[in-house]
Amino acid sequence: MTEREPYTGSTRKLVLAFDVGTTYSGISYSILDPGERPVINDVTRFPATDRVGGNSKIPTIVYYDGEGNPRSFGGEALQEAIVERAEEEEWVKAEWWKLHLRPRNMPSVHIDDLDIPPLPPFKNAIDILTDFLTYLFQCARTYIEESHANGPDVWASFGDNIDFVLSHPNGWEGPQQAQIRRAAVQAGLVPDTPEGQARIRLVTEGEASLHYCLESRNTADGFKDDVGVMVIDAGGGTIDITSYYMTSSVSPPTLHEIAPAECRLQGSVFVTLRAEQYLHEKLQGSRFGTKEDIALMKAEFDKTTKLRFNNPNDPSFIRFGTVRDRDLEYNIRSGQLKLPGNEVATLFAPSAEAIIAAVEEQRRVATQPISHVFLVGGFGASDWLFSRLKEHLDPLGLQFCRPDGHTNKAVARGAVTFYLDHRVSARVAKFTYGTRCAVEFDRNDEEHLRRAGSAIPRPSGRTVIPNAFSAILRKGIAVAETKEFRKDFIVECAERSTCDTIATEIVCYRGNSPNPRWADSEPAMFSNLCTVQADTSRVSRTLSPRRGFAGMQFYRQQFSIVLKFGLTELEAQISWVEDGEEQRGPAAVVFDHVVEAI
Judging by DSSP bridges, how do beta strands 162-168 and 13-20 pair with one another? Predict the structure, then answer.
């Protein structure tokens, strides 16, 4: 744990980190004063939420009325009076809604939208995220105003000088990041301007958890030069796993990723979903197998039984009724259902096996050996999960631990640490990135001959084959934050005005081929990430006409696609030369062109 340097800014600033989880959410913050060393604090008081054992989180729940207005959030939504009113006035509860944001290409054969509580009919997941961010911001303001001396004056001193750090699962990609940014704008956190967007930092939950571990005294011995570390963030919805290697040749030491980050949809909510299905099957024929009783048992399992379970040799209990409720044939006595421990273990097992599979994949592809593994996240508090993972990891010679007793606050605190310290200098490409393009027909290439029927004549008289894939960055490559990847392309058009705008899609290849050449060979493995577009009208006016096939006049524009992958968000630009100098345009809306590789 390295002591931070004093803040070098000229004015006071507030850094707010919001960890919006599938089941629980939290806030951490740091007030940056010029010349002072930054200190990280947690918001530990929320409306209608008791602070127990240092728990700094609230349920990620929202109640909406019939007109789509949010009526109750977090701990307030669990109060008996609110639950009763919600039932009387037919409010709709939104929970686990974050899972509706998941990328559809994530491996998730065990889940579909029917398994997740449905969204209110008048809301999408971005609307709910917007409302929840608004609520968290108000909670942060109230806490700071009530917890600091002259709190209202302290808050007023920030003005608009507030930066936000928003975390998301490792598996969330460009589209989900754009949705998070849009929700932040809609919540009024920042204006929808370049300056406003610059006040938002996005960080993966895996990297935030790493920064949290760097702060923990319990994990200090694991972060040494020439040592690889793995961080498992076991949350409510996802399991995020990342591996890093420390380099001490610079001060302070930095870390770089040594394997593509993993994300598995096997968090603790899936244990609860499996428990619900298990109870339906187990209680068939019992008078307590009704939909209402199963719902009560599921809620109690989620709240207590799941947290207490640690030994498959001991029975587990779900209390759901009164002392008069009994059905001895189904092991129900005094309103309590008794379950064999080995059967409860099967509800946890798929999540544990998913973590073990991801750990082994990280170890297989890591470019450096891994010696330490840290478990954080709310699900990481499960003693059974910890024991099962330890049972697998100890024989491998891996040092395995949980940093402290309150690992459910790791992401929010780690997100602030990420903002302040920014210790990761390089990240590994999870997929191969490039663009669809056309290539000049080569009659000696067997793949070209197979596609000869799709050949396109160009104005210059050349013939090109479409549906080629030109890789710009290949999977598994470690990318420094400042490193750029670029590839050159051309477009040909009969009208000069067509060259006023250049645009092309950035495509992600998710298959296993080390050298994918054709987008039509595995179409399901290719998906669009974003589109880069630039206004090149000034340079198009300087293009000279060329003569092509049969004297046809045409124009040719040359440009480069430039990608930066070393940050937590993809940056894509188009580069072209204008008046002898390089110009660049940012990512924008889809605009089709026939593009050829050079």
Answer: parallel
Cβ-contact 491, 595 below 8 angstroms: yes
CA 311 vs CA 101, 150, 314, 343, 345: distances in Å: 34, 50, 6, 11, 8
Confidence of residue 141 (pLDDT cuts 50, 70, 90): very high
Tell me the C-alpha distance between 92 and 478, whole Å. Answer: 46
DSSP assignment of 130-197: HHHHHHHHHHHHHHHHHHSTTHHHHHHHHTT-EEEEEEE-TT--HHHHHHHHHHHHHTTSS-SSHHHH
Contact 11, 161 (CB under 8 A): yes
β strands within 248-357, DSSP E: 254-257, 262-264, 316-319, 332-333, 336-339
Does pLDDT of 230 surpass 80? yes
Q: In the sheet that 336-339 helps form, which strands lie side by side, from edge to edge? A: 316-319, 336-339, 332-333
What pLDDT score does 593 carry?
37
pLDDT tens digits for range 160-213: 999 999 999 998 888 888 899 999 999 999 999 989 989 999 999 999 999 998
Q: What is the pLDDT of residue 560?
A: 85
Ranges of beta strands (E only) in 418-525 are: 424-428, 432-440, 456-457, 463-473, 478-480, 485-493, 501-509
The pLDDT of residue 502 is above 90: no
State yes or no: pLDDT of 590 exceeds 50.
no
Report the DSSP pairing between strands 24-32 and 332-333.
unpaired
Cis bond before residue 252 (omega within 30° of 0): yes
What is the structure's pLDDT at 174? Answer: 80
Closest of 477, 487, 486 to residue 439, by C-alpha: 487
Q: What distance in Å separates the CA atoms of residue 219 and residue 433, rounded to the nearest whole number?
A: 35
Which residue from 102, 139, 127 is spatially nearest to 17, judged by alpha carbons?
A: 139
Which residues make Cβ contacts (< 8 Å) with residue 535, sequence separation at least 6? Answer: 500, 501, 585
Q: What pLDDT sits at residue 250? A: 66
- CA dihedral (386, 388, 391, 394) in degrees, to 10, reads -40
Q: How far is C-alpha 151 from the chain's CA centre?
A: 33
pLDDT over threshold 80, residue 474: yes
Length of the chain: 598
What the block records as the tokens of 156 is 């007023």
The one-letter amino acid at 404: D
Could you tell me the two tokens for 381?
């508090």
Q: In whole angstroms, what is the distance from residue 161 CA to residue 402 CA?
A: 36
Mean pLDDT computed over every residue of the chain:
88
CA 573 to chain centre: 23
C-beta separation of 274 from 246 below 8 A: no
Q: What is the pLDDT of residue 291?
A: 92
| Contact present, 500 and 534 (Cβ < 8 Å) | no
- The secondary structure element, H or E, covering residue 53 is none
